[in-house]
Design goal:
- The complex is a heterodimer.
- Chain A has helices spanning 2-22, 50-54, 65-82, 94-101; strands at 134-137, 143-147, 160-162.
- In chain A, 31% of the residues lie in helices and 7% in strands.
- Chain A has a domain at 50-162: 2-Layer Sandwich (Glycoprotein, Type 4 Pilin), CATH 3.30.700.
- Chain A has a three-stranded antiparallel β-sheet with strand order 1-2-3, covered by helices on one side.
- Chain A contains four helices and three strands, in the order H-H-H-H-E-E-E.
- By secondary structure, chain A is mainly alpha-helical.
- In chain A, a hairpin with a 5-residue loop joins strand 1 (134-137) and strand 2.
- Chain B has one domain.
- Helix content of chain B is 33%, strand content 12%.
- In chain B, strands 1, 5, 6, 7, 8, 9, 10, 11 and 12 form a nine-stranded mixed β-sheet that branches. A three-stranded antiparallel β-sheet of chain B has the order 2-4-3.
- The model of chain B is unreliable at 1-21 (pLDDT under 50).
- The chains are: A mainly alpha, B alpha/beta.
- Chain A binds chain B through residues 87-89, 92-93, 95-96, 134, 136-141, 153-156, and chain B through 132, 134-141, 311-313, 361-363, 365-366, 401.
Chain lengths: 168, 464
């Protein structure tokens, strides 16, 4: 019995010793024995924004036109719920909507980053075929989103619309 | 609710105690072009320098310079050379003079007009340092603001024609029980007042319970049931009163309808085009002709033609729509002339906004200030008024995103001059109808003998 206990204590001692020897250490340049090297300062991780979660599959092979439209519209809806004090002047075009989502809104809240893969160098939000999404201001608070669809030409029969047009 | 409101107004629709024949009668006709007409392809610079600028900006949306219909301005216009869209020859004639007679000009343009709370410069717009209309570039808000002249919004919105009726109806239509606000486009905000509302009509006249469609037609059965309900005797006083009022309403609708039907479609000697807008303009003409029988000295009429939101394609659809619109307007003015009513009716166009100067591919998008026209005998025709903007992209008139032009003339200025002609007087009344007017114009400066003293200057001298 005593022998078994002593064996277990010895094993635990050995494990603890190994952990102490091989534990990760913080890099301390001043105490380093290595010569100083030129390093790019690491970018601090940026805080996650809503688009990181809601548009994670936007434009990817995992998604589709319709799913992209749904995720984008849900995203915009979610933002609009948070920014009640808004005016169509702030998001009346594609580029203005992007700026609005990126923080140019009355609450100065950021919901996406301008270097997101679905935003081009001109600051336009693109669909999976790299066509600009069309923003159509309907009222002071609401917009319509239009994807050009597979033919990549807007205002044709294969366009995708949110909200869906009311059939009469 | 709208049915009840309509019933309430219909209840007043009966001719009673006509004013003396010597009393003047005036009608203001609002032609609302819903969707935002691309008015920089309606009124186009025609001289080589400005046309080159227009062409460079509009690219594939530019009309051919040689296709533009030349406008011959009077010396009181802005002195520049313009052409009209090639599908608008009827309006060209009204601008240059009926049958080539330059003394009978009936149409002028107001350039770069739009919704404003107060004058705004480009710097003030960019710095957000002046109050701006709510919901800029959006259909709903901008169409509404043209009709309310309250771009700052209000909790209880009324239209400027409604507020006008609140003041004028009891003054000018003393012996009439008819609403002075007639809509040929369903319910609108334009004619909603605090105490008055619009009377909705259709191209075929009033809304009645006439039996159509055969004995078993659902509408006929419904109408019969409704009439039966109205004819019952009710012990409850409220129920009885409601039944009587409703019954009277329909009797009066019938009265309006009978008078309307008594006018043949060619009663003016002018044939109106058989298009939707043509039939609307004919119905407006009939309604104007009934002013006396309805005991109205003052009347506003609201007409709407939608479909101008040409994002997808501009050139062909706008051409088709202008080709439909122009003959209807032309016939309307011609009919007024043939009935010698031309001095008593003033028509003006309005639209949500103008459109971007830059092409989005084949169409154009929502913008702001644009060009509108005023038409009628009281108009000192043959003028382009206001300040026509530079059409270069990113000019000092452009608020950005492809040529969205900052208006230099306010809707209030247009409305104020219309109301001067219509007979509104007194600074307090103008304040009630147009709360923002003093930001643009001091109404006490208006001198009927001097058009240059007026908010814009499109009225003939001594026309009010």
């Amino acid at each position: 019995m005593t022998k078994r206990i002593l064996t277990r204590v010895a094993i635990l001692f050995l494990i603890t010793l190994l952990v102490i020897i091989f534990r990760p250490r913080k890099h301390s340049p001043s105490k380093s024995n290595h010569p100083p090297t030129t390093q790019t300062p690491s970018t601090p991780p940026r805080p996650p924004v809503l688009a990181d979660q809601m548009l994670v599959d936007f434009g990817s092979p995992k998604s589709s036109d319709q799913q992209d439209l749904e995720s984008l519209s849900t995203f915009v809806d979610s933002v609009f719920l948070q920014i009640k004090n808004r005016d169509s002047r702030e998001f009346s075009t594609n580029q203005d909507l992007v700026l609005f989502l990126a923080g140019k809104n009355k609450a100065q809240l950021r919901f996406l980053y301008l270097d997101s893969p679905y935003i081009d160098k001109d600051g336009k939000l693109l669909d999976r075929r790299k066509q600009p999404i069309i923003v159509h201001p309907r009222s002071q608070k609401q917009i319509e989103l239009r994807f050009a669809g597979p033919d990549q030409t807007p205002y044709t029969a294969d366009d995708l619309l949110w909200p869906k047009p009311i059939k009469t | 609710m709208s049915t009840l409101l309509n019933l309430k107004m219909a209840n007043n629709a009966v001719a009673a105690g006509l004013p003396p024949d010597s009393e003047d009668r005036k009608t203001l006709v609002c032609l609302f072009l819903h969707g935002g007409i691309d008015s920089y392809n309606v009124l186009v610079p025609r001289d080589n320098t400005r046309y080159a600028e227009y062409l460079e900006t509009r690219t594939n949306l530019a009309l051919d310079q040689n296709s533009l219909l030349p406008l011959n301005q009077t010396p009181t216009g802005d002195g520049l050379d313009y052409g009209l869209h090639p599908a608008m020859s009827g309006l060209q004639e009204l601008f240059n003079g009926i049958n080539g007679n330059a003394s009978e000009r009936r149409l002028s343009f107001i350039s770069n007009i739009g919704t404003l709370i107060e004058p705004v410069t480009l710097t003030e717009y960019q710095n957000d340092s002046k109050p701006l209309p709510q919901g800029l570039f959006s259909h709903f808000d901008q169409a509404q603001q043209w009709q309310t002249s309250l771009p700052q919004g209000e909790i209880k919105l009324t239209g400027w024609a409604g507020r006008l009726a609140d003041i004028l109806h009891s003054q000018s239509n003393k012996n009439s029980q008819t609403s002075m606000s007639i809509s040929l486009a369903g319910n609108n905000i334009f004619q909603v007042g605090q105490t008055t509302n619009q009377f909705v009509m259709t191209q075929n006249g009033a809304l009645t319970l006439r039996e159509t469609g055969g004995t078993n037609h659902p509408t006929q059965l419904k109408n019969l049931a409704l009439k039966s309900l109205m004819e019952q005797e009710y012990a409850n006083l409220m129920e009885q009163a409601f039944a009587e009022i409703t019954s009277q309403s329909f009797e009066q609708q019938e009265f309006v309808q009978t008078e309307f039907d008594n006018l043949a479609d060619d009663f003016t000697g002018v044939t109106f085009p058989d298009s939707r807008i043509g039939r609307d303009m004919l119905a407006a003409m009939k309604t104007i002709s009934l002013r006396e029988k309805l005991g109205l000295r003052r009347q506003t009429i609201f007409i709407s033609r939608g479909g101008w939101d040409h994002h997808g394609e501009l050139i062909a659809p706008q051409n088709d729509m202008l080709a439909e619109l122009t003959p209807a307007l032309s016939a309307f003015q011609q009919a007024l002339e043939s009935c010698n009513l031309q001095e008593t009716v003033l028509t003006f166009s309005a639209s949500d906004f103008a459109r971007t100067l830059r092409s989005n591919g084949s169409g154009s998008d929502h913008a702001w200030g644009g060009n509108q026209f005023v038409m009628g005998g009281p108009v000192n025709g043959g003028q382009v008024l206001g300040q026509f903007p530079q059409l270069a992209l990113d000019s000092s008139d452009d608020v950005g995103r492809g040529g969205r032009i900052l208006p230099t003339t306010s809707v209030d200025s247009l409305v104020a001059e219309l109301l001067l002609w219509f007979g509104l007087s007194g600074a307090a009344n103008f304040e009630q109808v147009l709360p923002n007017l003093s930001n643009f114009y001091n109404i006490s400066n208006a001198d009927a003998s001097d058009p240059t003293s007026l908010p814009i200057g499109f009225l003939k001298p001594n026309s009010f």
